[in-house]
Amino acid sequence: MNARASLLRNIAGNWIGVGADAVTGVVLTRIILHAVGDAPFGLWVLVSGLLGYYGLLDLGTRNGVIRYVARHNARGDFESLSSVVSTAVSGYVVIGLAVLVLTVMAAWQLDHLFTFHSAADLAAGRLLILILGTGAAIGFPLSAFGGALEGLQQFVRIGVVQATASVARAIMVVIALRLGYGIVAVGVITVACNVAAGIANAAYVVRRFPEVRIALSGVRRDTFATLAGFGVVTFWVAVSNRLRFESDSLVIGRMIGLEMVAVFAIGSKILSYGTEVVAAMAGVFTPALSHADALGDHDMVTRMTLTGNHLASLLAFPMTVVLFFFGKVLIALWVGARYELAYMVLLIIGVPMAVYMSQFGSTRMLYGVGRHKALAKILFFEGAANLVLSIVLARRFGILGVAWGTAIPLALTAFVILPWVSCQSLGSSLASYWAAAQLPALVTVAPLIALFGAMAMLRRNAGPVEAMAQLMVGAVLYAALVFRRFQKPPAAFAH
Q1: What phi and psi, each to the nearest 5 degrees, are found at residue 462?
Q2: Average pLDDT over residues 195-206
Q3: Are 14 and 281 in contact (CB under 8 A)?
Q4: What contacts 483, CB < 8 A, 6 or more positions away?
């Protein structure tokens, strides 16, 4: 299988899992929100966001596993490859034990962290933390096998397992809610499905790749040092991403209230679904770029990076256009018209987020070739600025202030800093950087903007049915434009 076919197959495999997650997530959000109410749903978002910080304890190990599994596989060094996975699993076991301790402490002190209006909400919050924290502790060692599969570019397998777990979770959550169970049951089902998916990935690695031997003898100090050296930088990227996109709900929960957490989460969740679609496409480039870098093929690294940016732009730009013109209708159909304020969150964060997503090929390149230290610095300062601005602006402007606190630093990263750092790594000029990826995508999406703009002027208050019809017409037009563009192979595979 040639490079182009392999990447396209991996992208499709990733989209299987992400698509299932997105569809079930959209459906379940509406069902859970209306079944349990604003406060319990806000509690779910708050606890999930709080425990999401456990991901920092990964210390960048998973990204190190992906990078070095890909490099050792490219060179046929299966002894070193086995050592990477064995060392990662052993390290994750220790981290899992630490997570259990932190979970008990967080549950104990929960009433000191957030304001609860009833003893029932506090009890449910503590139980949720214990359930989700236990699941996180079990998931850490299993995640090493997921990273190994990514390094081996087994994205189709990962996608199928992820999709199966998502669909199973959705079915069980709906049944549990219909039987009268609440948000705690949602947590139990979520943990069970995630753990089952992790076990399935681990079993596949052991069975399908016998050359990958998991053993205590493979746990080596030098391998640990290698993973730690790569991972410490990735850790700061993870810290920064938590500050950038997950601190908002904590600020709102602390300063405004659980109900507004739910409203903000609706807008941010829509953006996160779009981000996951683009990230799933770009994620397959990381091991491929590591593979090319291991072979010293700098030209391929450059071509693949710019092609990744172009593909990301072709996904991010039209999604942003759709949210701009139809976001209000989509939110009303999804969760109800009373959450219309979430549309303003979309408008404020949407444009800088789209430009940032359009450069996911660049961020993958920085990981793939081991130059992600600059990315860590950029995102950390952006995250810190996000947190400070969100706190300051929340006092006066509420959740819209929090949205602006996210958007302003994100715009600086997307429009100025990340392009400059990427050009330094690729040896490219800013003009050629934008012209190779984002500019052609803007040309492709321009007719879609014109179509939706004309429709909006003719029908300012289109109903749901009419809006869906307009979306279908736009989808057909854009698909035709993209198909025409790809009559010529992408630049990364021109040679």
Answers
A1: -65, 140
A2: 90
A3: yes
A4: none
Contacts 24+ apart (CB under 8 A), 188-193: 188/131, 190/132, 190/135, 191/131, 191/132, 191/134, 191/135, 191/138, 193/165, 193/166, 193/168, 193/169
C-alpha distances in angstroms, 451 versus 330, 355, 446? 18, 21, 9
Q: Return the domain boundaries, the chain.
A: 1-245, 260-495
**Is the entire prediction scored with pTM above 0.85?**
no
Provide the pLDDT confidence category of residue 232 given band limits of 50, 70 and 90: confident
Contacts of 372 (CB under 8 A, 6+ apart): 233, 234, 237, 366
**d(C-alpha 346, C-alpha 461), whole Å:** 19
Q: Which long-range contacts (CB under 8 A, 24 or more apart) does 425-433 make?
A: 425/365, 425/366, 425/369, 425/371, 425/374, 426/301, 426/302, 426/305, 426/306, 426/365, 427/302, 428/302, 433/306
What is the spatial distance between Cα 57 and Cα 73, in angstroms, rounded to a whole number? 27
d(CA 104, CA 152) in angstroms, rounded, equals 36
Calpha distance 238→393 (Å, rounded) = 24
Extract the runs of DSSP E, i.e. beta strands, from 265-385. none
How open is the CA angle 321-30-350, to the nearest 5 degrees? 25
Give the total residue count for the chain: 495
For residues 230 and 253, what is the distance between their CA atoms, to the nearest angstrom?
Answer: 34
Could you tell me if 73 and 152 are in contact, meaning their C-beta atoms sit under 8 angstroms apart? yes
Token pair 């708050």 is found at: 46
Instruction: Return d(Cα 82, Cα 178) in angstroms, integer.
Output: 46
Q: Which of 136-150, 167-181, 343-357, 452-466 has the lowest mean pLDDT?
A: 452-466
Q: From CA 482, how far away is CA 328, in angstroms rounded? A: 26
What is the C-alpha to C-alpha distance for residues 467 and 488, in angstroms, rounded to an integer? 33
User: Which residues fall within 8 angstroms of residue 235, CB to CB, at 6 or more apart?
Assistant: 56, 58, 59, 60
pLDDT tens profile 346-394: 899 999 999 999 999 999 888 877 777 888 888 889 988 999 999 999 8
Whole-angstrom Cα distance, residue 90 to residue 168?
30
| pLDDT tens per residue across span 35-86 | 777 677 777 777 777 676 677 677 778 888 888 888 888 778 888 888 888 9
